[in-house]
Amino acid sequence: MSNELSPVYLKKGQERRLNQGHLWVYSNEIDTQKSPLKSFTSGEQVVVLSQQGKPLGIAYINPHSLISARIISRDTSVLLDRSLFVHRIKIALSLRERLFDKPFYRLIFGESDLLPGVVVDRFSDTLVVQITTAGMEQHRQALIEALEKVLKPSIILMRNDVKMRELEGLDLYSEVVLGNLSELTEIEENNTRFQVDIQKGQKTGWFYDHRMNRARVQHYAKGKRVLDLFSYIGAWGLEAATAGASEVFCVDASEQALDWLDSSAEMNQFNNITSIQGNVFDVLKHLRHEKEKFDIVIVDPPAFIKRKKDYKEGLNAYRRVNQMAMQLCTRDAVLVSASCSHHLPAETLVQQIQGCSRHLDRFVQILEQGHQSPCHPIHPALPETGYIKSFLSRVTPT
Asked: Which end of the chain, N or C, is less packed with Cβ atoms under 10 Å?
């Protein structure tokens, strides 16, 4: 065990979750008599010990956060440094290269790749890095050097402008730390090319988490009329067009996102894409008034339930949007109902789909259930790492 690191003692019996594979230590699990939180600096590495003094692993600590410590190694001789970053990145890369034949994927997914507080998305030779914890922010340079060593990228962009950094007492910023970044970055997913603004777009500019679910929709899209709700820059809709959809309508509140979508449609030489800017619920009312019908309707909203206290209102929003979407379905249509709300169980989303179908006197058959892409692996001891739900249903008359 490293003698250089300060010890953090847990209260009696609080090591159980860590022994089962969890990586987080909450502030109320720490014996503050033996290890006063005020004695630690934010981001420093520590040795986590049971009440009896048994070493449980190396972690970094933030005494001001509810999640006070995050395990980075079970081996107490292994510290978080450039060497460990290189090792973990190589292991993560081997999985992605096994899965995908082109370098477009989430390379690092935080705790699931044993690098808590780090997300890295790869767009060919461009990397977008997001650090959300004080411990990882302290090792920013070592992370950058490890990424350069393993991947030799041309561009690295730090998108450290997410609100959750404020919970760790960190500043928000966005910075190009390697290379020269042009305004738009070209990516490819499911045989479709996209123009992405990784500096101004949501999160890292792209969402790889639904890529397998979008591929599923392609099997149903040929010759079909498609409505893509909350489209952002058109991932679902344009990939349906690649698969032969006859018409695609993409709806989003962001005019900027739809401009990027139109650029991507032009790049793919699609002339059957219509983008509609506006509030999705208002657009759905208008389309129903106009008696529009669609063979495939995709409902992939932002997280309506971000926190537990949002549950009732958010659940109502999922019910409303799925019911309104179902009203626009043809007599034999496909409805894709997705959620990225961790607090919404999959079975509850199914109940909403079924409830909507009964209210409208329609019959629903769930054909396929989707999850997040395998480049967003789920850590089995951390249910928080699993958040994507997707159900592809057939909607017909009763």
From this structure: C
